[in-house]
Design goal:
By secondary structure, this protein is of the alpha+beta class. The chain contains 24 helices and 7 strands. The longest helix is centred in the middle third of the chain and has 135 residues.
Amino acid sequence: MRLILCILRIIVLLLFVPVVSSAQISTGLYRDLPDSLKPADRLHLKIPEVNKILKHWFKNAGWKASYYDEADSLCFRYAGSYRRLRTVREQCDFVHTICGYLYFSSERAMEVDESLVEEDEILPPAQATMGLRYCEVFINNFPEKSIFNEHFLPNIFLYKAHFLMAQRKHKEAYYALLQSKEIAAGKAITSSISIAFSSLGYLSETLGLPEMAIRNYDEALKVIRNEPAAAWIIGQRIYCLYGKQRTFFFDYVKTNNPVLVDSIQRLHKSIGSFPRQYNGAMEAESHVALAGVRYYQGRYAQSIAHVDSAIAIYPNLQLRGLLQDAIAYRALGSIHSRHVKEGRKLLKQLNFSKVRSPVIGRMLEDLYSLSVLDGDYKAASNYQRYLLTYVKRKARLELRGRSIELEQIYRVREQENRISKLQALQYRNMGIAVMVVLMLIIVSVTIYYRYRIGKVSSRKLIAQVERMTELQAMQIEEAREFERKRLAQDLHDDFSASIAASISYLQIKANQAVTEDAKLRALTVLNMLKESYDRVRQRSYMMYWEDQTAGFLKRIEAMVHILFFGTNMEISLVSDLGGFELNADSKATILLILKESITNIIRHANATQVEITFFVDMNTLILEISDNGRGVGNRQYRKSLGLLSLKKRMEALGGSLSIGSQYPSGTVIACTFPLAACGSFPAEHPGL
């Protein structure tokens, strides 16, 4: 029957939605509205005026019950009129206001009509049903880019979650709160994140999940820890502290753990440390929670004292939904304290449809026992029925909470498994990447090393080719010089001699000629031969002397630079023979000494500077080769086959070779030749 009446009520309210022109408010409400909220005409309200009233109605906590009914009527009548607003911005704002109003209104409605009956018989308030509908309207009709206020979307999912809780759809409410938190976190809205966490704490508390509830309340406090102490921030902190205290209280009733009592009392002191203007209602609720602890402990006088403190701090406990809890503690506490008459009088005011205390099971057991003792078996039966319904409902909520907890654990495990797989895949890919990089490095180093080796080898090969080319050029030049000298000698010794003999013979024949004509012809031929003889002598002289010692010194200079090519040594070469001409044996010996000495310096001396001097002093030809290397000892000198061979060559020419050290480091090779054995100073125009 109640279900049918509720459905008819919703239908009637929805039918009145389009009838906007007849909407009006009472004279009393119009009078009590602040000037900023009063409409221009109380008999014909406009949508923006309704929007303003519904948006700020919760600031007027002193309204009469009839005023709240009028606000409900305005909300139901005007909710569907959002389509008449011209801009998306106005529509979005109005629908958000409707959802917010229904959220607060549904909480008030739930406190009015909920009895200890089977859960399936408890109807959700019409505000929750309508609020869920308009939350979906907001989500579907207003994409995020058209929502001008960043708080709206997190708020809508928060409202949706509470509407779902009013309909006992706790799992859907849980995921709606997660969505609200994720959206707020994405936009970095601190207030919305904290509210989402505290709502998750309340839901966990309702479903009998104390650990999850405490964790969420702590997260809500952590989010606003560094926020400035504004009124809203202080109120949220107090609410979270009270939520933790209430959770500890529920858990204490369930487990009877005395440690939780200390936590409840500590949180009570923390709530009381805030100014009364912020914590008045919450401090009163905290006293009611302590009254429940004392009642459960059997300290009935202290329980009544906490109830009195709560009423003194906040007389209108009915607005907080705790009046029936206070009456229950006082009534049963008085009976247990042997103030039976006063207690029974209070019991008549008790309505278990509004008792929210977790010790209600203990209360019902006590009332059942008292009714049995009084012989009132009908009342005892009712209390027993209430107790069974309460236990069944509590067990069902705990099963839902356990289901959500297990599902959350499963989701966390799945997430951990996905993370583990991703990490394994990441490690594998990282290993492959490292191996590829190492292989690339190895290949690059190998290529670079081979390139460097090839480059060095190429340089060495080029240097060797250049050196060999220079040496071959020197050998070719020496061969040409030898051939030139041999040809000059042949011209001088053979051809010139034959011509000289022919000249002598023709001279004799000319002198013996009988006739003048014969004598003239003989003399003509004789003059021709003499001219040829002179030309041959001159040519042989030029061929023999055209590349003598001056050309040899140039070849020495070229050879020195070729041998030291690529060594980065500083070379100094000084030569001055003063016109002295070297013979072939001395030239060969000098070249061999230079080649062997330079080779030893490059291979063994580790020098940076080399000086070579070649000059004539008195009757001696001197060649000195010095470096600043590490020097050579007598033992090394004895083992050097090349130096020993050169020494023998020097001795064959009548010269000497000595090797010694110089200060501060280095080696000096000194070679001396007697001039008589090496060549001669040529005459000005020598004859051949």
